[in-house]
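User: I'm putting together a teaching handout on how multi-component assemblies are represented. Below are the sequence lines for each component of a complex, exactly as they appear in our records. Could you produce the 3D structure of the whole assembly as structure tokens, so the students can see both representations side by side? Please keep the chain order the same as the input.
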Amino acid sequence: MNSFTGLPAFEYKKAKTPGDLFQIVEKESGDFRFLAGGTDLFLQMRNGVCSPTVVVDIKELPGMRDLAYSEEDGLRIGGAVTINRLAAHSHVIKKYPLLVEAARSMASYQLCSRATLAGNLCNGSPAADMAPASLVLDAKLELVTADDERAVPIESFFHGPGETERKPEEFLQAVIFPVPPPDYAAHYLKLGRNRAGDLAIVGVAVLAYPDDVPGKYSWKIALASVAPTPIRAHEAEKLLSGEVFSNNLAEQAAEAASQASNPIDDVRASAEYRRAMVRTQTLQAIKAVHADLKKEAK
Amino acid sequence: MSFHTINLKINDVAHTASVEGNLTLLELLRERIGLTGTKNGCFSGECGACTVLMNGEPVNSCMVLAAEADGARILTVEGLAENGRMDALQEAFIEETGTQCGFCTPGMLISARALLDRNPNPSEEEIKQALRGHLCRCTGYVRIIRAVQKAAALESRRAA
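Assistant: Of course. Below is the structure of the complete assembly, with chains in the same order as your input.
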């Protein structure tokens, strides 16, 4: 690791319009990186993971700092909105407390003054703390190039460690969260080596909302740090959804989530420990969500 | 290599600098402007020693480009005292021995300042949350937390 030394040399360019951006991209033919918060990019550059000749600051593009909620369109989070700004926003706190819970599990407060939701997702880390919450909340990612704009469902966004659906010349303009289902409850449980913002050993997001049939619920479960990408645990969801809740069923679902994981051994934990912790963390999260649903129903 | 002309206010003093793209705000402060109160601990956003306020928000200055700070207001530990009078946090850190070797202290003070600005009466848990990105290798955390509590009490008395 190349600590204590400065960043390798590069040209810094600020794009103020999409026109600026695409001109730079066309000229640099591949040897560029987009800069939002920089909290991942600068580390990768210091560690020699990447060495772009041009770094293009995309924070001042139009709409990148938008943060708005409407009852029709849901929540729109611009590509340059920081984690701290997101977590302090009144509509996010009220309608999407799961995002706040995930945000508060991430890194240090001062890193989150720079780090962005968009960057956390685009970095493509299997351990991205915002990914499980974004998966169970059905986020859509607005990817933009010079002549195209597409909305990608988050479930098809992650391809592998550090690899996403985003092409190098595309920038993430905004992350859109639909209006969540009425009376839903959700939690993000993060197991780390400490509570000082270390990367997750296991991250579990669970979301559930009442079905048409009283006493039954639909469930969504997503995991971080236990597979090559953040994943949904569909089998676990199916076991719970539309069924009368029981502790036995919750245990079966937690086991199914553990089966869905495909973790590796690394410096933070062994694969075996991770699989076991997926089970216990998922069970805890399911129980916490169920307790909230019952409170809500009263 | 091209240079960028930036204008920023550091501790209420206007500065103009010509910076390379890869120069960090930390290097600008320490090596070009000579404000060495801000420390370089890890140069990777882990230790918090280089924390400064940028437009009122705490940031790791090693993780911000000087060029990104164009137009910003920066507060470093040198700017905490006003008219020769120490900030309540500085007084409390001295009284509670919240500083041992002193290397983490500037960052701790800056993040604590930001905390008290947004939440004048934080709980112990809120103090821990705000300071969790600051490593004190003397492990003097208990006294640091006590110092922040004392400063909060001091400021609320002054405000009353």
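A couple of points students might notice: The interface with chain A takes residues 1-2, 4, 20-24, 27, 40, 42-45, 48, 51, 54, 57-60, 63-65, 67-68, 111, 129-130, 132-134 of chain B (CB under 8 Å). Chain B has two domains: 3-79, 88-159.
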